[in-house]
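To close the section, here is one more complete example, presented without commentary so you can practise reading it yourself. The ligand is TUI.
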Amino acid sequence: MQREMQGVSEKMIKTPICELLGIEYPIFQGGMAWIADANLAAAVSNGGGLGIISAMNADGEWLRAEIKKAKSMTDKPFGVNIMLMSPHVEEVAKIVAEEKVAVVATGAGNPTKYMKDWIAAGIKVVPVVASTAMAKLVARNGAAAVIAEGGESGGHVGEVTTMALVPQVCDAVQIPVIGAGGIADGRGVAAVFMLGACGVQLGTRFLVAEECGVSRTYKDKILKAKDIDTMTTGKRLGHPVRTLKTPFAKEFLKKEFDSSVSDEELEAFGAGSLYAAAVLGDEKKGSFMSGQIAAMVKKEQPAADIIREIFEEAEQVLAGGMKWVK
Ligand code: TUI
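Output:
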């Protein structure tokens, strides 16, 4: 009965988000900057999830080319993630409307000033939120769903954990909620479903998808990481980022606590660090952003296999097969 209320059918996990977006599995691939391109997004969409291209800090024409490429690689719906701190945000906001992508996810800020145009173009807008206040605001402005992302996730993070954020966002809004942050397998999916979510977004696990073109160094670091191997940097600058504990990240944190280092110097020290990690695989200058569940990511495999494996496990767990029941 309770499962029926959440829209979870007995045999296969179909939730309201599947119906809303026309996807097979209720899973989004996170829009990881410098990483989530047309190749990865198309592989995830072809595997039955929602693939997402990251617009990150790139200009509009780069994004348009990636959207066209993804359209040529899949006839399934896919999305674009717009990082609201991008210097090209106005331009990329127009391009997603022109290209009429199925879904726009947003991150790192308040998307409301763009939402009317996106909705008018027939786009489903699904913002990432890190608080109930932002969830309510975007719901009032016509969001189709929200992604409640806890601080366990990689990259730019809020303060509230997934465990605390997801149920509070579910109580705050009437639209579907997708849980994110700290999810790597079927147990995580089942857990956020129990908190009221009807979908999940995963980033770190998709970093090691075979179709993910991130640097070899980045993939190897994720595959080798332990539970305590992430830290947050950038709090002083107002945009905390969860990243693997590397000598670069530790040096950044040291500078954050050094009052002789100005904010401008700190910004300059961090500039280009995700590109250095994701594209160049540069261990010295790279910021290897990762969620706290990197240690649960154990092998490289096709995106479609990742999705299938996760949902097979989630179905078992949701059917009552809890790990401690021997
Ligand atoms: O955006 C992300 N993750 C990201 S963005 C990114 S690129 C970057 N690089 C260096 C510094 C900063 C960013 C790497 N990873 N996730 C979605 C997310 N959005 N997490 C948290 C939020 C968020 C935070 C505050 C959403 C809304 C929000 O609203 C604040 C306000 O009131 O404007």
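Once you have examined the tokens, check your reading against these statements. Confidence is low (pLDDT under 50) at residues 1-5. The pocket of TUI is lined by residues 33, 83, 85, 107-110, 128-130, 134, 149, 155-158, 239, 241, 274, 289 (CB under 6 Å).
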